[in-house]
Amino acid sequence: MGKTVLAIEGEDFVINGKKTYSEITGTYPNVHGLLMNARFVQGVFDDKADRARFNRFGRNFDPDRNTDDLIAALPEWYDAGLRAFTIGFQGGGPCFTIMNSTIDNNPFSEDGKYLDPSYASRMDRLIRAADEIGMVVIVSYFYTGQTPRLKDGKVVLNAVRTASRFLKDGGYTNVIIEVCNEHNIAHEHPLIASSEGMVALMEIARAESGGMPVGCSGLGRYINEEVCKESDVILIHGNWLSRQEYLNHIRQVKAWAPGKPVVCNEDSQDISKLEVSLRARTSWGYYNNLTKQEVPANWGITRGEDQFFAQRMAEGLGIARSEIPVEEQYYLQGFEPEMEYEGKRWIRLASLYPERVDYVEFYRNGELFFTCYDKPFYVNYIKNWQMDAIESSHEDQVWEAVIYLVDGKILKRTNIPE
Q1: From CA 353, how far away is CA 313, in angstroms rounded?
Q2: 0.85 cut: is pTM over it?
Q3: Phi and psi dihedrals of 194, rounded to 5?
Q4: Do 183 and 201 form a contact (C-beta atoms < 8 A)?
Q5: Nearest-CA neighbor of 359 among 313, 395, 411?
Q6: Rounded Cα distance, 396 and 411, in Å
Q7: pLDDT-based confidence at residue 396 (cuts at 50, 70, 90)
Q8: Between β-strands 357-364 and 367-372, what pairing exists: parallel, antiparallel or unpaired?
Q9: What is the DSSP string of 143-182?
């Protein structure tokens, strides 16, 4: 038995006999039993097709070092209140740079009966490291960008059994299973994409793992009654959704399957939705593709969005943390020297309290380039988790964000080319 023993009591998560966060003096009673989490799905990532192309962002990629770097970052996140993170056997898409269809990040053998030993070793190290410090790992089996590598339904069934037996044999006591990330878009496999098939796969995963709690997520706009009722942990995604739509999802899944914990394990950098989750007494999951899913990820709490999420999480839980000065609560993000890729940058206005912002005007070399009204405040906003890049260089362009607050104040943030 591990050091971190997870149990579920009604809607509450319990670790070592105590509701989560109840052991921390000063935390709010209404958050006890929640499981604040983040999407760290690339923690066991590799690419058999072309590993060298991930030598970027000022670092060379090595799969073992990638795992070790995440392990080293976990205590910092734990101190801010993070109690769980999602890791994917098939990772996730680096949606802004490299097409996932060109990546081979699949640890399952051709028949689905075996795990690549290197993936298994990295997953084991991560789960045990989390166990040492009191964290839960949401282990995701399938990612829709990689499921085409499973040739048919038989391989899918075998892979579920293989991954589940791996977890059982590991003797882990700090694991939640997510059978598939956004299962409803795995159209090449009806067994995964259909609710009926997923219910069967979840039952297999629960049995083969020795009774570990099981859930499955759908695309942000998707929830399903059958899947909710079969889940031990109802996993939802908040990306694509406004705050109201997100709350409506929470209300609906609770009505379908009352008395079960609801965990969002993927949303966006829009940390205003963290507040929606807390008020609805559900758990929220931070998703930042640009700092945490583009390989090689920087697993620490980086300046701007990561920093603001950690602060808001601690604040919402009642964990004491040094305040961020007012002048540092808005950050023009995307100009970090290492975050350029093939002459492209992803520019946005990170804010500690995005709900206090009405809209943002972005100026390039003194001319209005883009106006963004929706959170998070991206240049070339597409969805709340997606944006288009700017063909840009840090050296020859001056960008300014003019921030119009809901209280009428106007602030400015400018990048200063070096």
Answers
A1: 12
A2: yes
A3: -80, 150
A4: no
A5: 411
A6: 23
A7: confident
A8: antiparallel
A9: ETTTGGGS-SHHHHHHHHHHHHHHHHHHT-SSEEEEEEET
Side by side, which strands form the sheet with 367-372? 367-372, 357-364, 399-405, 410-414
Q: What is the pLDDT of residue 100?
A: 87
The domain spans of the chain are: 6-317, 327-414
Place of tokens 């740079």: 97
Q: Which of 292, 388, 307 is nearest to 348 (CA)?
A: 388
pLDDT value at position 281? 97
pLDDT band at 274 (very low <50, low <70, confident <90, very high): very high
178-213: burial string, b at 16+ Cβ within 10 Å, e else? bbbbbbbbbeebebbbbbebbbebbebbbebbeebb
Phi, psi at 390, each rounded to 5°? -110, 130
Q: If pLDDT is split at 50, 70 and 90, which confidence band does 291 have?
A: very high
Per-residue pLDDT for 393 more than 80? no
> Three-state SS for 235?
strand
**Same fold flag, 6-317 and 327-414:** no
Structure-derived torsion over alpha carbons of residues 241, 245, 251, 256, reported in degrees to the nearest 10: -70
Question: What pLDDT does residue 395 have?
Answer: 61
Tokens 């970052």, residue? 73
Rounded distance, CA 160 to CA 150, Å?
11
Task: Tell me, rounded to whole angstroms, the distance of Cα 104 from its chain centroid.
Answer: 21
Q: Name the β-bridge partners of 19.
A: 14
- Choose which CATH entry (3.40.50.1970, 3.10.129.10, 3.40.50.11540, 3.20.20.80) describes domain 6-317: 3.20.20.80
pLDDT for 156-210, tens place per residue? 999 999 999 999 999 999 999 999 999 999 889 999 999 999 999 999 999 999 9
When the pLDDT of each residue in the chain is averaged and rounded to a whole number, the result is 96
**Contact call for residues 162 and 202 (beta carbons, < 8 A):** no
Per-residue pLDDT band for 417 (boundaries 50, 70, 90) equals: low
Confidence check: pLDDT of 372 > 70: yes
Side-chain-side CA neighbours of residue 47 (13 Å)? 23
Block residue for tokens 């059978």: 179
What's the token pair of residue 25? 């003096």
CATH class of 327-414: mainly beta
